[in-house]
Amino acid sequence: MFSFFKNVWFRDGNESTLYVNEVAVRIRAGILLMIPLFVGLTLYDVLYTSNWVVTGNTIVDQYETDSEGRTLYAVEAVKRTYEYSTQTIVLLYGLFEMLAGMFVFSARFSPIILISTYLAKNTQPIWRPLLPKRFAWTLGAFMILACILYFNPDTFATWVNTLLGSVLLPVTENYMPGWIPGLVWVCILFMWLEAVLGICVGCKLHTLMVKVGLVKEECFACNNIDWNPIAEKKIIKH
Asked: How far apart, in whole angstroms, are the C-alpha atoms of residue 172 and residue 178?
């Protein structure tokens, strides 16, 4: 049991090049998919449902109609105030999960990693190098962090202004770029591809960056290509 918790998630925590169980990774992605889905529902509620709430029995028939013959009513309504503390806590946990899976020490503290590893224990493990996954999870962490700041612009502005001793960011309006909520849908797509189809988009990007020389780390897929048959085929063609 001790060794299970010590080496959870990884093939061997003492290896110089760490390998992670692809089966457990896909299970975790399926569980974590609930986080962007929850945040996506919040954004849908904010963007596409009414901001107004009618209070009590305040709808009164005015016995009048407008130019199109529609009945007019007097309504007392208030505008909804959105409070994102629950969403922030959920996103902070998602950020923790993204970071926890990257390291041997922190992985054992992740409940979802423990659950995923347990659920995968009776399935033949598929070992993949950690580095491309770490790159993918880093992208996920940045997306989550951007969403946290989007939901809490006033808190972030207060921290920045206090730290720098001047008013650089407004505290009464959301100054965050409007494209940030779109990252939620990107997260949903990426995690669905990982969980259902086994396609790690971040890993694909990492492999591409290695091939074009932007990243100097080794490419596991490239190193496992048997070049001899390829060379023999070229000789035969010539």
From this structure: 16
